[in-house]
């Protein structure tokens, strides 16, 4: 399983879809759904969602009559409904504008598509992304023996009689910070969908760098500076910077 390839392509297709407008939404959606169905790793996640017992037509009738957004409370149930909705739209069985008009109040087509993506697609992307991350293989240690120290927040690698560099930057503490950053971005109503996707990608980059034997300081610093520009994230970013041992302005 080429996890890095799957992760990269998933983020690219998700970003393309969330940035789409009325001119290319249909094509971007088809590409996204095709990838989710055909990639072995994502198919393992999406398969049960697509096979779930969802009364899509009943749900469509309910929202059309209520002029309000009604989604399942459980994340998995919500993701199952949305992926079946997107699949139906991709196959031409459901008109995205009919759905959007029931829950969106924008008038321009491009704005309607963006609102639809924000209310539905973004939730599915977040669910799939979280499940995909849970399948990530552990980072391979450098040659030598891994020796855990302290509370497990860091480890050291012993090669012969020499101790080299630390791995597993931040441990559980950093993971909590990254999860808090993702949640804060998801709840930020001032950011557009495409900006949120880019910033969520930045958090993913930090997570990958933390798993490296030697995180690349320049990349970490650039990403942290980008996140620090978002109101409300400065404290979390500063905590992450301290764990990476970098200083941001």
General description of the model:
- Helix 3 packs across helix 5.
- The chain has helices spanning 3-18, 25-38, 40-51, 56-66, 75-90, 96-103, 109-134, 171-187, 193-211, 217-228, 234-244, and strands at residues 145-149, 154-159, 162-167.
- With 249 residues, it is mainly alpha-helical.
- A hairpin with a 4-residue loop joins strand 1 and strand 2.
- Residues 140-167 have low confidence and may be disordered.
- It starts with a helix and ends in a 5-residue tail after the last helix.
- The longest helix is centred in the middle third of the chain and has 26 residues, at 109-134.
- Strands 1-2-3 form a 3-stranded antiparallel sheet, with no helix packed on it.
- The protein folds into 2 domains: 3-134, no CATH class; 168-244.
Q: Give the termini distance in whole angstroms.
A: 40 Å
Task: List the helices and strands in order.
Answer: HHHHHHHEEEHHHH
Mean pLDDT: 82
Strand content: 5-15%
Most strands sheet: 3 strands, antiparallel
């Amino acid at each position: 399983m080429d996890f890095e390839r799957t992760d990269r392509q998933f983020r690219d297709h998700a970003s393309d879809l969330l940035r789409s407008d009325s001119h290319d939404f249909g094509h971007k959606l088809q590409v996204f759904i095709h990838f989710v169905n055909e990639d072995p790793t994502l198919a393992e996640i999406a398969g049960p969602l697509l096979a779930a017992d969802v009364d899509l037509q009943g749900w469509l009738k309910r929202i059309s009559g209520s002029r309000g957004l009604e989604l399942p409370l459980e994340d998995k149930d919500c993701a199952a409904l949305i992926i079946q909705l997107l699949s139906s739209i991709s196959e031409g069985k459901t008109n995205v504008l009919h759905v959007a008009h029931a829950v969106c109040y924008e008038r321009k087509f491009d704005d309607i598509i963006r609102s639809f993506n924000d209310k539905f697609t973004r939730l599915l992307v977040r669910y799939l992304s979280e499940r995909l991350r849970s399948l990530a293989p552990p980072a391979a240690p450098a040659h030598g023996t891994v020796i855990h120290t302290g509370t497990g927040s860091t480890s050291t690698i012993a090669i012969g009689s020499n101790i080299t560099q630390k791995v597993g930057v931040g441990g559980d503490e950093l993971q909590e910070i990254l999860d808090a950053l993702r949640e804060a971005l998801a709840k930020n109503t001032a950011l557009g969908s495409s900006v949120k996707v880019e910033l969520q990608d930045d958090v993913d980059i930090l997570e990958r760098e933390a798993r490296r034997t030697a995180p690349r300081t320049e990349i970490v610093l650039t990403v942290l500076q980008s996140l620090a520009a978002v109101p409300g994230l400065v404290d979390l970013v500063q905590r992450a910077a301290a764990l990476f041992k970098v200083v941001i302005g």
